[in-house]
């Protein structure tokens, strides 16, 4: 066998030689050469002129929002934290005292009372409000001719400002001529000054808060309208009752809306102020001294802006932790997949 035949016979076994033009081409076209930077990572693509113009226009359009956040959110947060480290009355120059305001806050018995009142209000007002709002949304979602009128009537109470609603409720619960005491009198109950009793004052405010459930009800209504009707039709064909449809379809697919209303409800309950300030001013016996009302008193009645700023910072941190906890727990029950319902 000639030398050329031997080379031809060995070619399938040995493949292409590691040297030569073909090998050089293979080496150049490998992964590192294709990436262009020799580091195994794709090269960064430069923006074209059109993309740069679009980026500038986008930043221009959102600049009012960015300026608003910087001026009305970021700067007040930073300023509040700086002031919280000082003794400051608003009239004289602040005096740096370190974390003394925070230490004083943790041992302040009035602060403990205000936190307890706020948590009590939150644990009752938020769940009750979410249930009331969901019931209103289900009523608004009825397929009847007068549904537009019903939606308007159910939403109207939420349009009344809280300070006006507070004065209205003062008249409603008046012990002499209030409609609430007249109604309770039908069952033989004596006239009671509901706002003058520590055990009833917070209950009155919790009940009053349910008149603002129309806002959450509209959000629930949008979530209900977003659920495909075909899911209910399939459930009816399978013989599922209305209650079973509500538990197996409506509630799971409404969990993102429930999460949103839960976050907004908790945020609103943490900052309850107007009704306590107008109706009872924190009384009776500090039973309606909520956190925001105590913060307001320290800032504008007692002239302790540094201590009030420390309370504001603590409220912000607690709100962030609570929101993070709710979002973490929401991963177990919130369903974003319509097909999974």
Gist of the model:
This protein has helices at residues 3-14, 21-28, 31-35, 49-84, 100-106, 109-140, 147-155, 162-172, 179-185, 198-209, 214-225, 229-237, 242-253, 255-270, 274-279, 291-301, 305-330; strands at residues 86-87, 95-96. It is an all-alpha fold.
Stated plainly, the CATH topology of the largest domain is called MetI-like fold
Spatial strand arrangement across the major sheet: 1-2
- Helix share bin: 55-70%
Order of helices and strands: HHHHEEHHHHHHHHHHHHH
Q: Uncertain runs with pLDDT below 50, 5 residues or more? A: 1-36
Q: Provide the gyration radius in Å.
A: 33 Å
The main pleated sheet reads as:
2 strands, antiparallel
What is the count of DSSP helices, taking H or I runs of 4+ residues?
A: 17
What is the CATH superfamily classification of the largest domain? MetI-like
Tell me the fraction of residues in β-strands, as a range: under 5%
What is the straight-line distance between the termini? 76 Å
- Determine the structural class based on helices, strands and strand pairing: mainly alpha
CATH architecture of the largest domain: Orthogonal Bundle
General shape: flat
CATH class of the largest domain equals Mainly Alpha
User: Which assembly state applies to the chains in this document?
Assistant: single chain
Count of the domains: 2
Provide the residue-averaged pLDDT: 85
Tally of DSSP β-strands: 2
